Amino acid sequence: MELFLIVLVLLGLIGLSMILNRFIPFVPVPLIQIVLGVGIAYLPSGIHLPLNPELFFVLFIAPLLFNDGKRMPREQLWNLRLPIILLALGLVFVTVFIMGYVIHWMIPSIPLAAAFALAAILSPTDAVAVGALAGRSALPKSLMHLLEGEALMNDASGLVAFKFAVAATVTGFFSLFQAASSFTVIALGGLACGVILSYLLIRLRMFIRRSGMEDVTMHMLILLLTPFILYMAAEEIGVSGILAVVAGGITHAVERDHSESVMAKLQVVSTSTWSVVLFILNGTVFLILGLQIPAVTTVIFRDATISNTDVIAYIVVISLCLLTLRFIWNYVFLKERWISEEKDEPLPHMHSVILITISGVRGTLTLAGAFSIPFVLQDGSAFPERSLIIFLAAGVILFTLIAASILLPLLAAKHTKLDSPDHASIEYLAHKKVIGSVMNVLKEEMNYENKTATLSVISRYEKLYHMPLQKENSSALKARATEANLRMICLRAEQAETEHLLETGQISEDTAYHLQKHIKEIEAALSNQMKLNLFLITSLLKRLMAQLTSHKKKNLKTKIQEMRFARIRMSKAAIAAIREHISEDTKQASTELINNYYKSIERLSMQAQYPQGKELLEKQKKELQLKAIQIERNEVQALFESGEINRDIANNLRRSINYFEATILEEEISS
After folding, report:
1. Which of 318, 467, 624, 664 shows a CA-CA span of 20 to 30 A to 50?
2. ∠ at Cα 135 (129, 136), nearest 5°?
């Protein structure tokens, strides 16, 4: 029961971290989650969750790296193979060698072999942390691909080096030849194991499908179990489980590209399911990191033999040395052509090197590795300075996370200004991708009963899909402001017409009250993003309450007719108001709004003349529209999490989705 309560608390804190991030967007979500983890660990009756490294690797690292491998562009991974190898192998081993001596020289109480172990576990960057921070920093795609490829590959090299360093400390024996040959076998064996097992699992799914079992839930279950099977099988035979899940993810991505049209529904379910799973796993990883910090710091701060000031200085010096070494390595070996894209203005070499250096954040993989250090040596004595090593690892993690959180947005902002003309192009392509996903799902689920409604909804998305790119320049921003002003004029005209209809007795007080309240809610929603979200929630609740109480209402048909009559008059009043404000600058926006109001009048008139024939069609259309909106939101979130769009573009896309949803809900008042 206690474990169940801990899981519930962690899930609640993940949700709370996302809410807090909305109010303090300049603080990345990982840092918020770490702080929340520290906070509940320090509470008198707080959560104390011991970190089991083996369980942590299989439960969290395996599925996260599997997903990273699945979404990593294979072409980019292959094109960047040389710089990735230089970072994932060359830089890791150089870091272990140099930092091992630096740590031993600075802290003589840590033996050289143990210092190599600490340097090894500090050498790999964390793919989860890199992705979490890069999403808000708008790093160039070429740099993101390089960082992701490095983080995917250097985990194995760092952990293997750590394993041999720990073994050397425990046994007092080390063989360079044995270490090199073992690393080759472990790495290549892990890659081969991942590819072969993934191929077999894919063939199993194909066999199940050919047997007539097209159940998406079952196929999804096999996909969810795949990273755990790959990791555990690879570790069982003595090869790298991390490289196995990475290779498995890449293999599944290739299979997905070939079978996308055949299993379109599975791809939709898979995207939605994985987005939820990864959201929970990512959040839990950083919460667990926060939960470990109090226990780690307490041991060191209470140790009278160690100066707290010296320990903090050690963390700062080690972190700065790691960044300096990373900077020098990239400055010497990184070629500008590796990270330049033809469609983008090339980034200055020094700027690229600095971005890659700051992006080398360490994460929970480092802490989990540190916790896996044994307590005793082969002769039964205690492992030298085990608690200090764990504390230093945790400190370096926090240092690199905080440094990247502060510096990356500032440095990446300069790059954003350089290629700002392409910002609109990225948003346009993302918009088309979102719309394409919606149309594919709607076409997949179209049947004889809903064909007319589905084609009607798809037609709207087809028009949006084929709209030309409009650059987000000053004239475009001015057009948006003009449209917003005209809509506010329309709402005021509708409000005035409602008051006139009430004064002349053409509508009842109850109808006027609902119309006026709805107009005010729409006005507030269009003027403020937070009010818009509140309006969407309250509209859904009111719709639900209306459905629950509709059977109790008397003269429902009369009220609906009265509401439609009022809406037609309000639309005509809005058209008249727009025509009074038409000018050369507002002509295009005014014409579009007038056409929309005429369509609304036509729809309301048709409903009044043929209520029974149109009722089912309108209901189907509304259900499909709301479903399409949810698909849009899921796709935007997936693009943001994969790093294809930054937070600003995601918010722009969500704003358009919210506005469309507000328009749909506004129409409900007349239906």
Report:
1. 318
2. 105
